[in-house]
UniProtKB/TrEMBL annotation, chains A, B:
Cofactor(s), names only, from the UniProt record: Zn(2+)
Origin species: Acidovorax ebreus (strain TPSY)
The protein's name: Amidase, hydantoinase/carbamoylase family
E.C. number: 3.5.1.87
InterPro entries xref list: Amidase_Cbmase, Bact_exopeptidase_dim_dom, Peptidase_M20, Peptidase_M20_dimer
Amino acid sequence: RIDGARLWKSLMDLARIGGTPKGGVCRIALTDLDRQGRDLFVQWAREAGCSIRIDAIGNIFARRAGADDSLAPVMTGSHIDTQPTGGKFDGNYGVMAGLEVVRTLNAAGVRTRAPIEVAVWTNEEGSRFVPVMMGSGVFAGAFTLEHALAQRDAQGVSVAEALAAIGYAGQAGAAPAVGAYFEAHIEQGPVLENHERVIGVVQAALGQRWYDVTVQGMEAHAGPTPMELRQDALLAASALVAEVNRIALDRLPHARGTVGSLEVHPNSRNVIPGRVKLSVDLRAPDDAQLLDMDAALRAACARIAAERGLAIGVEQVVYFPPQPFTPHLVEAVRANAADLGYSCMDVVSGAGHDAVYVARVAPAAMVFVPCADGISHNEIEDADPAHLEAGCNVLLRAMLASAGV
Amino acid sequence: RIDGARLWKSLMDLARIGGTPKGGVCRIALTDLDRQGRDLFVQWAREAGCSIRIDAIGNIFARRAGADDSLAPVMTGSHIDTQPTGGKFDGNYGVMAGLEVVRTLNAAGVRTRAPIEVAVWTNEEGSRFVPVMMGSGVFAGAFTLEHALAQRDAQGVSVAEALAAIGYAGQAGAAPAVGAYFEAHIEQGPVLENHERVIGVVQAALGQRWYDVTVQGMEAHAGPTPMELRQDALLAASALVAEVNRIALDRLPHARGTVGSLEVHPNSRNVIPGRVKLSVDLRAPDDAQLLDMDAALRAACARIAAERGLAIGVEQVVYFPPQPFTPHLVEAVRANAADLGYSCMDVVSGAGHDAVYVARVAPAAMVFVPCADGISHNEIEDADPAHLEAGCNVLLRAMLASAGV
Ligand SMILES: NC(=O)NCCC(=O)O
Ligand SMILES: NC(=O)NCCC(=O)O
C-alpha cells in the first residue's frame, strides 16, 4: 500500500509553485513556473533512483529499471501544467501518484519485471497553446512534432521558442513502445460524489472538436449610428454563444458546448465592436453525434452571418474522436478497486486526458477519484486525501499486475 | 473666408502623431502621443500669436487678444484624443478649425472686440478613462476636479498620474466666463450624407447613461460539467448583450444601446467563464425615455441573474441628460450657412461632445459636416475637404458675429 501522507505532502509542495492567493495554482505550460515544477519533479525522481529522458516536445520520462529492461515499460503519468485559474490536483495528482508508486516500490524493495516509467506530458491543458494534450498527442502520432512546435500563443511565442527558453527541448526520435499505460486523475465532474463512490472505472472519453471563430463586422460610433445600420460583431457573437449552448442542450445527457474565450476589438465603450474572436468547444460520446454538432455549429454561423449582414469564419483547431479504453486494463482497475474494498462505478470522462492519445499506441486505462462538488478548472478545486490515497493504491496494484514482480 | 488647403494640411500633419497603417489615428488620452499632439497645437497657436493657459484637468486654452480683453471670450474647440482605432477628424477637426479661424483673422488683420479662444479639452473619448468628456465636464462643473483626477484606467493609472507624466497638469482655479461657445465636428452618422447636405445645424445631443456590469458565475471544466449544472457568466452576458440591443430597438428611431467592451475571466477555451465584465451605453433624445431604458436594463439584469442562478452587478458610471443648444446661436449657425450658400438641415447629435457640457455654463452651438458613409470611431473615418472648409467658414462667421469686430 502507498503512503497517503507522503503523496499529500508531494502534492502540497508542488502546489506552492505558482500557488495563488485563493488556494489554486497558475502554472501555465512552458512558462518559468512550469520549468520550476518540472525541475522539482526531476529532482524527486532522481532521488528515487530514476533515470530521466526528455523528448523533443518536452515530455519527461522518469524510469525505474525492471528485472528485464528489454521489456516495454509499464507507464503512468499525467501533466503539471495548469489552467490560468487552475487547482492543485488536475494533472498534478497523476504525476505525484506515479512518483508515489515508485517510492512505495523502493521502500518495499520490490523489483518489477518490466521497467516502470512516470511521464510528465507537455501542455495538456491547451489554454496557452492548441492543440490540447500536445505532448501525448505528439507521442502517439495524433499530429506531428513540427505542427506542435510551430503553434503560437496569443503573444506570438511559439512552442519551440518556449521549450528552448525553459531548457526542456529534448531529443527527437521515434516514441518507444509502452507495455501498458495507466493514468490516475480527479474526475473533474460531480458523478462519483453524487453516487458516493471512491473509484471511477473509466470506460471512455468524450470526443472533442475545438474551433477558432472570427466574427467580422464594422466598427462605428455607438451614438450616431442608427441601430438598423449596424454590423455589431459582439451582437452576432452573443447569438452564437447562445447557439453553442443550445446545440449541446439539444443532445443531452452527454453532449457539451462551451465558449470559454472571447475577445472584442477594439473593446471601447462607445465603439460598436468591429471584430470578435471566440473559441468553441464541442464534446460528445459518439463520433457521429459530434459530427452532427459540427454541422449545427457551421449552420448557426452561416445563419447568423446572413441575418446580420456580416462575415463569420470557422476554423477547427482540435479534433479527436471518442476514445474507449482497453478492456482488460479497465477490468484490472475494477478488480483491484474491489479487492481493496473501495466502492466503484463505471464512468465516462468528459475531459480529454493524455491517456486518450496514449490509448492509440498502447493498452491504456484510467482511475478516477472524486473532487469536491465536481469542481475543476477553478482555484477552489479540492479533493479528499483518503480518495487520493485510494486511487493511488489502485494504480499501484494495476501497474504491478501489468509489470509483473 | 478661411483657407481650406491650410486647414487640410494642419489636419494631415496632426494625424501623423499616432497614425496607424490603416490610415487612422490611435492617440489615446494622456499618453505620450497625446502629449506630442498637444505640444504641436501649442507650438502652432503660439506661432499664431496666442497666449496659452492650461487648467488643472489639462484643458488647453489658446487666446487671441480682443480689442476689449475684459469681455468674456468667444470660444471654440474640441479634443485631440482619439479612440484606440480612431480617425483623423473626430475632435481634431474642431481644434484645427479653431486654429484656422485664428490664422484667418491674423491674415486679414481683423481685430475682434471680445477675445477669441481655442480650447483643447482633455479625454473627450472616454475610452481610457471615464467619465467621457472629462475636461469639459470639469470646466462646466458636471463633476468635480477631484473625482476626475481620481479615475483610473484598466492598468490602474490615475488621471492625475497620467497628467503629471505628460506635463499637462496646469493651474487649479474657477473656470472663467465664456461669452459664447461654438464647436465644429464631423457628424459621425449618415444623416447629412443621406440628405446630401453640407452643414448640420445641431439642435441638441442625446442624453447618455453608461454602466459597468459584472456577471459573476462559477468557473468549471468545460468537459465533465453537465450543461444543467453550469453558472456560465458568458452565456448570461450574451443574453444581456441581446437585451441591450432590444431595449434600443423597442424605442426607435432615436434610442441607442451598445455593449462596446466585454472581458471574460479566465478566458480559457476549456473553462466555463466564471466572470464577465462589460460596458453598457444607452442613449435617448428624451430624459424620461432614458430613465425608462435604465429601468429596462436593470430589470433585464435581474431577470437573467434569476433565470441563470448567478449574480449581476450594475454600476452607472456616466449620466448626462439630453442637452438642447442655445437657440440664438443655433440660429446664427443656420443663418451664416445659408448666407454662405451651403445646403443645411437641422440634426440631433447622437454623440456627446464637449459642447454638451459647456452648454451648461455658456451659450453654445455646434456645426456638423458630413463624414464618409457616416462612419466614425473607425480608422477608415474620412471627410471631404470641401465640407471641412465649409464648416470652418460657418464657424468663422458665427464667431465673428458673437465677438464683434
Ligand atoms: N483534464 C483536463 O483538464 N484536460 C484538459 C483537456 C480538456 O479540456 O478536456
Ligand atoms: N464625439 C465623440 O466621439 N464623442 C465621444 C463621446 C460619445 O461616445 O458620444
